[in-house]
């Protein structure tokens, strides 16, 4: 795709999951705000497949579906009250919440989930829906954790190499839509105890300069594509990449990172850095499939 075509790409519609919990309500309103900024529609999804799974022994599936409709109606009403300009659609599915979200969305849509819930859209610390969706979605997934108050006006993105260009472009488009600045964070690790490698890697300054130049090369095409977005490159030496990203998160309205999915791992898990950031970040985190 050439630069002109990329410039005319827009952020797609927003799809958000809800189970009626307080954390899900926060995610729904965050997603509605994002849809309003983008000028795109919002789809609110409730997967009734597991929310009442344990109670179906004494409660009919019909009752669970009826309760799901109530959850969706309340979410849609909250969106319409706060963001009347946003077109809202609702989807009630009998599938599990994770599968419901994946089925309701396409590669250009952004999926949004809360960090905790009643059990349907539950905490990522419990390994449930958020991890399932982040690991399998073909499009961006945003996990809404803590919200910076007040807003920082900054979108941060983690960049290591050219494979993160998709995450970088998503972050740039988001910053452009929000009128925010873009902070590119490239955390690199230096072998502290080099041993016999000391003669090869003894120039930390040279390594640092190499990392800075590599980041500039990765970011340059995106600077050209989004000339109206203020971009700051932050190349830092780190003992922990995940730790450095978590440290950045309180100063950002959104932290964007590429999904690193080990090719041979069972269950399509995410990489350990992504796991750690999702568990500990202090702002919403967007996970983008790596190119």
From TrEMBL:
InterPro entries: Rossmann-like_a/b/a_fold, Universal_stress_UspA, UspA. Gene3D superfamilies: HUPs. Residues 13-145, 155-289 form the UspA domain. It comes from the Bacteria. SUPFAM superfamilies: Adenine nucleotide alpha hydrolases-like. Belongs to the universal stress protein A family. This is Nucleotide-binding universal stress protein, UspA family. The lineage of its organism: Bacteria, Bacillati, Actinomycetota, Actinomycetes, Kitasatosporales.
């Amino acid at each position: 795709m050439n630069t002109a075509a990329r410039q005319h790409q827009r952020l797609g519609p927003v799809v958000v999951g809800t189970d009626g919990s307080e954390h899900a309500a926060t995610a729904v309103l965050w997603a509605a705000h994002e849809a309003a900024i983008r000028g795109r529609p919002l789809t609110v999804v409730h997967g009734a497949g597991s929310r009442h799974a344990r109670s179906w022994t004494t409660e009919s599936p019909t009752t669970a579906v009826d309760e799901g409709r109530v959850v969706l109606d309340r979410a849609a009403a909250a969106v319409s009250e706060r963001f009347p300009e946003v077109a809202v659609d609702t989807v009630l599915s009998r599938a599990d919440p994770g599968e419901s979200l994946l089925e309701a969305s396409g590669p250009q849509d952004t999926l949004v989930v809360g960090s905790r819930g009643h059990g349907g859209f539950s905490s990522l610390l419990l390994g449930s829906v958020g991890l399932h969706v982040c690991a399998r979605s073909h499009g961006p997934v945003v996990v809404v954790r803590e919200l910076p108050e007040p807003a920082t006006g900054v979108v941060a993105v983690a960049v290591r190499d050219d494979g993160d260009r998709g995450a970088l472009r998503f972050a740039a488009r988001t910053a452009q839509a929000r009128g925010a600045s873009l902070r590119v964070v490239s955390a690199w690790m230096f072998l502290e105890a080099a041993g016999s490698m000391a003669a090869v890697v003894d120039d930390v300054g040279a390594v640092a300069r190499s990392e800075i130049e590599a980041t500039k090369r990765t970011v340059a095409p995106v600077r050209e594509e989004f000339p109206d977005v203020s971009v700051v490159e932050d190349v830092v030496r780190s003992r922990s990449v995940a730790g450095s990203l978590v440290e950045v998160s309180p100063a950002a309205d959104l932290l964007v990172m590429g999904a690193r999915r080990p090719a041979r791992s069972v269950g399509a898990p995410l990489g350990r850095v992504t796991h750690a950031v999702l568990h500990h970040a202090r702002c919403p985190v967007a996970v983008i499939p790596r190119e």
